[in-house]
Structure formats: C-alpha cells, structure tokens
Amino acid sequence: MAEMTKSAGAEVKTGGGIGNWFALIVTITTIVVGEVLYHFVFGSSSNFVNGDTANHPVADNPGHLFGLFYKGGFLVPLAIALLLMVIVFSIERFITLSKASGAGSLDVFVQKVQMNLADGNVNRAIEECDKIKGSVGNVIKEVLRKYREVGNDSKMDKEAKMASVSKALEESVALELPMLEKHLVFLATIVSIATLVGLIGTVLGMIKAFSALATAGSPDAVALATGISEALINTALGITTSTIATIAYNYFTSRIDGLTYKMDEAGYSIVQTFAEKG
C-alpha cells in the first residue's frame, strides 16, 4: 500500500508540473491575443471617423462596438486576456471533471458495487470500477483492493481491517482531489483581479473626464466623452469577467463536492459491509 501511495503521489506531482506549464502557456497566450485584438481589431482605422483612432470619434458602422472598446484605454488588453483565461480554464475544467465523473451514472455504479459486496463478489465490484473509470472508479477500486487484501489476512483483527480499509479510502480521495481542483485557484484569483482592473480603468477614465472639465473656457467635449467611455468600458469588462469567473468557480466547486460525496458514499458503504461481514 505504501508503494502504491508513493507511486500515485508521483503521478499527481508530475501532472501538477504539466498543469503549471499549461497555466503559464494559457496566461502568455491570452495576453498576446488580448494585445492583438486591441490594436489590430478594436483599433482598426475602419472603426473611426477618417481613420484617426486618436482624435476622431467612433464611426457609425458594424465596427462601432470594437471602436468603443478601443477607447477603453491600455487596460483593455489585460481585461480581454483575463476574460479569455476564464473561458479557457473553464473549458479545461469542464472536460477534466467530465472525464473524472466516469463513463456512466455514479448512482447506478454505487448501487452495483453495494450489491456485489452484499453477494460477496469483490472481483465483480472491481470490474464495475474498470467499466466506469474516472476518479470515483479509481478511488473505489483501490478501496476494494484493500478490502480483498485485508479480508484474506488472518493475522489482523476486525477493527484493524476496518481501519486499514478506511485509511485506503482517505488516501485515495486525497490523491484524486488535487487533480479535480487544479486551476480553480486561477478562476478564484481572476474574480478579484478582474474587478480591480476594471476599477483602475474606471478611475483613470474619470480622471481624464474631470481633467477635460477643468480646462479653461469651455470644456473639451471630446476629451470628456473619451474619459467617460474609458471609465464605463473598463467597468463593464471587469464586472463581466468577474461575474463569469464567479459562476464558473462555484459550478466546478459544486461538481467536485458531488464527486467527493460519491467517493465517500461508496467508500463508507464498503467499510460498513466489511463491518457486517468481516
């Protein structure tokens, strides 16, 4: 069991390294994409009157919205990158958790395992784990192996056997959780960062707007409008990104809690069966 735990731990560590590289690549790529979109798509001369992005208002054409985002200022590329990060990490987590859920219904799987154990057929229960796969299948398979191992050990008393099976459940769940929770920290961090980036953009935009009002004589209408636009655009991007990240984080956390519950439910049913028959 110690060798199995050590090997599984090594696999988790290796996966974490790959995951860290993935996160780094996603971060760099989204920042580059955000800059490209800002300068070459949102900042296209066709989106502005007379093609002048600095001194002329946004043109009334299909690129009107792009032009407005360009007027949001230099923080817009970062806001776009954060939004893209949320989308990419959400897709990655959705795919990973879908695989972790296994190839069938977890409720049916748990019932089959309980029925097979009630009939004393541990091997058939292990076969069910091979069929469903996923994190739940992996955890219950290791628990069933320990169940079978200690069941044939005449040197251990009943309490020691139950403790050994329970420990196998705890260790297996602990090894699966890092894979399930990977990258969620990025979503949780973006919730705060996106809001702060939007707030900074808002403040900078309002500074420009008030500066335009403070000019001698009549206020600079173009500068005033530009400042207000920058403030509102950054606010909108920050709030939108933070909202999506919050929804995604809560959704994936709920799914992980559901998977963990199924692991515990099936695992403790095995321990209970052992208590009754061991």
Would you mind describing this structure in some detail?
The chain has 9 helices and no strands. Helices cover 81% and strands 0% of the residues. The chain has 278 residues and is mostly helical. The radius of gyration is 28 Å and the shape is rod-shaped. α1 (2-42) packs parallel to α7 (158-181) and α8 (184-213) packs antiparallel against α9. The chain has one domain (2-277). It has helices at residues 2-42, 64-70, 76-100, 106-118, 122-132, 134-151, 158-181, 184-213, 221-277. 36% of the residues are buried.
Structural class: mainly alpha
The backbone outline, from C-alpha atoms, is rod-shaped
Beta fraction of the residues?
under 5%
Quaternary assembly: single chain
What gyration radius follows from the Cα positions, in whole Å?
28 Å
Helicity, as a percent range: over 70%
Order of helices and strands: HHHHHHHHH
**SS elements, strand count:** 0
Query: Main β-sheet, in a few words?
Result: none
* Average pLDDT score: 83
Output the number of helix runs: 9
Low-confidence stretches: 1-16
* Terminal residue distance: 20 Å
Overall tally of domains = 1
